[in-house]
Design a protein that fits this description.
Strand order of the largest sheet: 1-2-3-4-5-6
Shape: elongated
Structural class: alpha/beta
Strand content: 15-25%
CATH topology: Trna Endonuclease, Chain: A, domain 1
CATH class: Alpha Beta
Number of domains: 1
Largest sheet: 6 strands, mixed
Number of strands: 6
CATH architecture: 3-Layer(aba) Sandwich
Length: about 190
Amino acid sequence: MAVAAKKRPIPTGEGLTYEKVWAMFQETDRKMKEYAEQWEKQHNETERIVGKLGNRFGELVEHLVAPNIKKKFNELGFCFTKSAMDVEISDPHNPKTDAEVDILLENGDIAIAVEVKSKPNNKDINDHVKRMEILRRHADDKQDKRRYQGAIAGAIITRAARDYILKKGFYVIEQTGDTVQINIPQGFKAREW
């Protein structure tokens, strides 16, 4: 059985003054600000934790893709002799890194830069186009005449993302169980930089 709450009488008369009402508003305002600060701290901590988990998931996907990717491309006739993870591309005279490549596959004729995301989106894909342009400029500076192509790998790739990846001329690499699958639709021609 529920117990009825006791009603507190509303102060009236001499007890309620402008100063008292103003003090109540100030106290309420102080408590609201305190609550907002606590909420902001909790929100920032949650964002930090989620971001850290997202990065770790991305690393996990990268480590799932890397061991199989060279073999899968070689099964398609590429004959890659070298693969490397976390390749930094920079100008030796400038300490700033110009681009980072998650996985770089190479042979004497071609190099494929693979960007690995847990769930790639349009921004990730457009960023990889820019990365490919940087790779091409650096290759030209070193008289590297190989063809450069790109690929996007992901654990979860939506149909819209897959279509956009292909539209930009990248290979689509999808996680399938404990290995990866390279989706190359009929008539697809990879873009070269």
